[in-house]
# Entry
Amino acid sequence: MRSILVTGALGQIGAELTPALRERYGRTGVIASDLANARPSDEFYERLDCVEPEAVADLVERRDIGVIYHLAALLSAAAEGRPQVAWSVNMSGLYNVLEAARRFGCKVFFPSSIAAFGPTTPRLSTPQVTIQRPTTIYGVTKVAGEMLCDYYAARFGVDARGLRLPGLVSFAAPPGGGVTDYAVEMFRAAVRGERYSCFLAAKTRLDMMYMPDAIRAIIELMESNPQRLRFRNAYNVTGMSVTPREIAAEIRKHISSFDVDYRVDPLRQAIAESWPQSLDASAAREDWGFAPRFDLAAMTSDMLAQLTSATGAFDQPIPHEARNANATLE
Ligand code: NAD
Ligand code: SER
# Structure
């Protein structure tokens, strides 16, 4: 069996997807990669900058890669701070991965986002096929990325598959500079017994998902029958439609003293208001059986239990820049 490559493996999704893939397909068959230097003790991790085409092609050929989970990207708020870098990482990175997939016959997973939609898109039960005119550089790269995957599938027969993921809530690794990071920060503050200052307004409603549902959706999509897939750009998936106030209220059912104030960041607020409040995932349900398991109550119970048992792992905030040097995947 050919190996699996995960790019951006030290990020919020990769920190959970990589162990899940190793559990399912075997540790030796899953190569993790990111910008951090390789460690001599970990022969299944390699440094890979996806912006370098030769490096991507070399690793894919040398390690006999058959499937690429391409997670490396700059997220929405981080991308808005460095739009030129975001275009380079998000677009050149994907192009290099798709080119390597074309040359060496790989299957590709590409994570799109609710950010692929914009203010002119219907915000409630956003359809699978609808207006996609995002107003962020991140969203522009997601729409262009979806179209590039579609093109490589139709033109070159690359088995490209994608999801439009909502904002993800997780405990294993901190989020990487997105607008939906507030939710994870809120849980971490609650467990530390701290007040949380939320950068989005209390009533800002967005589609969100708990990480275990996202990991399962990624694996189920990648294992699904290719003949049944009507969409090669990306499938809408959904978890729950929630506001900061609703998450805080749910946390308060477990930690009654938890307190939140709202200090709105205009940039991130404007981005949030341009994104869907809920996604219509009927195409994903019909084509490959997608069904989320976690609602707000179930996610909150599990998040609090996981963070509390993490024996100090979340006592201090971990700066995103420092994560590459410190993170472990298993
Ligand atoms: P993250 O920011 O936590 O992790 C991204 C990783 O990519 C980081 O570890 C970073 O070091 C790495 N990276 C950055 N530039 C790179 C480069 N040039 N070469 C190789 N690696 C590089 O992001 P995440 O939350 O894990 O997201 C992964 C993917 O899923 C992204 O494409 C993101 O747009 C998408 N997505 C995430 C969410 C979410 O809520 N987390 C939602 C929708 C879509
Ligand atoms: N959670 C991501 C962000 O906020 C959406 O893709 O950037």
